[in-house]
Amino acid sequence: MPLFLKLLRYYLWIAPHLLQIGIAGVMFRRQLFRLFPWFFAYTCYELSLFLLLFSSEIFNFNGSYSSMYAVTAAVSTILRFGVILEILRQLASNYVVLARVLKPLFRWMTIGLLIAALAVAVYAGGNRANHSWFVMNMLDRTALILQTGLLTGLFLFSRYLTLSWRNQVFGIALGLGVYATVDLITAAISAQSGYWRVELLDYISMAAYHCSALIWIFYLLCREPVRPDVDNLPGQHDVEAWNQELERLLHQ
């Protein structure tokens, strides 16, 4: 590997996790881990995972890097789903009745996305030269389709849930959405190109994660309230009216 690419790879690998140290520190100092426990857990897990994988590569632990990555990636995926559910809970926290309608809506959306993701992953095919890698890539694409679909749904409903672009919840969702979208594109490309070209796509995925970390630390450092003053937001009266109407219908 050329020296420039090697240095670039190490930069894109190390820099986002240095930013995540700052993210964890800001969240701990401002007690934001109480509001976003899943995101805080995800940040701490990614830092621990980085130390484990980086040490494995540096000290060349008999090719254990690939096997460790496959196992730990599953935990990372579960934590990202937890962050998405946490974002939804934060958005609907002021509207109990509206949340009772949104939860089944997103539940059915999840089921629909899961069926679509499995269909795409199975029937889209791909390079099967390395069977174990192909299966892992298929599962990864399925999870990423679910994540991008749910985050898209959250952004579509953001106007009606008083989600401002200045809000920290928006920043967490935006950063996660950027990474999931780019990762889905690279996973789809790698499925067709095959295992041996995955390393070239890793640079794009790592750069996207770097951008996500920058978005997260920017929003967390901004001294904006976690929830804006909802009484002064455009469309607030519409949401309250929906909430009251839904409450009336549910009690009939």
How is the secondary structure organized here?
Blueprint: H1 3-29, H2 37-58, H3 64-91, H4 96-123, H5 131-156, H6 168-193, H7 198-221, H8 236-250
Salient structural properties:
mainly alpha; 78% helix; globular; 252 residues
Quick structural gist:
This protein has 252 residues and is an all-alpha fold. The chain has helices spanning 3-29, 37-58, 64-91, 96-123, 131-156, 168-193, 198-221, 236-250.
Order of helices and strands: HHHHHHHH
Question: What is the 3D shape?
Answer: globular
The separation of the N and C termini measures 69 Å
Main sheet: strands, sense, barrel = none
- Our estimate of the beta-strand percent is under 5%
Mean pLDDT comes to 76
How many structural domains in the coordinates? 1
Count up the helices.
8
Describe it.
It is built from 8 helices and no strands. Helix content is 78%, strand content 0%. The protein has one domain (3-250). Mean pLDDT is 76; it is low at 226-239. It has helices at 3-29, 37-58, 64-91, 96-123, 131-156, 168-193, 198-221, 236-250. Helix 4 packs antiparallel against helix 5. The chain is globular and about 50 Å long. With 252 residues, the chain is mainly alpha-helical.
